[in-house]
Amino acid sequence: MRKKFAVVAVVLVVGIGAAGWLLRGQLLARYYVGRLESDDSAIERVVALGEPAVPRLLELLRQDTAATRRAGRALARMLEQCPKDDPRCLALAGRIAESFGDFSLAGKQAAVQIAEALPASGAREAAAAIVRAALKDGSAISQDQAIMMAVRPEFNLSADVLPLLNDRKPEIRRSALLAVGALKEIVSDEELLPSLQDPDTEVRGLCEATLRGRGLRDKDIRLGKLVTDPSPLKRLEVLLHLPADADLDPRLWVQKLCQDTSPLVRASAARFAMEPGAPQDAKLTERVREMARHDPDGTVRQIAEFLINSQQPERSEEIKPH
Asked: Taking the complete model, does pTM exceed 0.70, yes or no?
């Protein structure tokens, strides 16, 4: 019996000691996390506490106080100190990524800064998740932070920046254009052309400068402005420039006009492509044949069918009337 009592006593002592240690950690976490409201020196004390402080730090990211940014710095320091691929580090990074949408504006900005420490710790997926979430966030500050990070090699998220070329905020459109404008493998010249019609003067200027940096000439940019003009009549002016300029490749521009949203522009482009004396191109002929069969506008289908059937047999097979 005495042995049993001794064992029970030891277990109780160990249990009380463990509970006391846990309680001590929680009390210290409450104290030092509370000091983050006004004391930068508390950051290192919180970092030293580790896991017991994490729930309170994450809660601070949901608030918008003086302590929010310090909480972000403390979490970033914890992650920086973790050995690479440490399961605890990966778990913490995942919690931050999953909770991003619940954070305050200041908390989201802190989370984006935390993401900078994640690739080195091995938590690349969590880092990418945070940056992607920030790119889609309504806050210009969070988006701007994320844009600059997305194009860095360790994040490799340049393609996720492309939708922001059409963001409703002009400052974000500018940042996106500056970030991906030079990356030809990510965004083509054609994908940049709509920015020539941007309502923001600075965006338009940046787009012109970017296209010139890619080697486009003034005449190319002039046609780019015409082909993306909101007015169908202005877009039709592209066809007036092509016969007069031997330096311009008409096939590229006509191909684009054959896919225009306006039936008038599509029909005119088809006529230009198939008229006698026009440079013959198999892709353009095939495009007009496709228009004859499937264009959503009945008049355009009839015009394209007539143009195909008017060609010599060696140029195309006759399309039978439907």
From this structure: yes
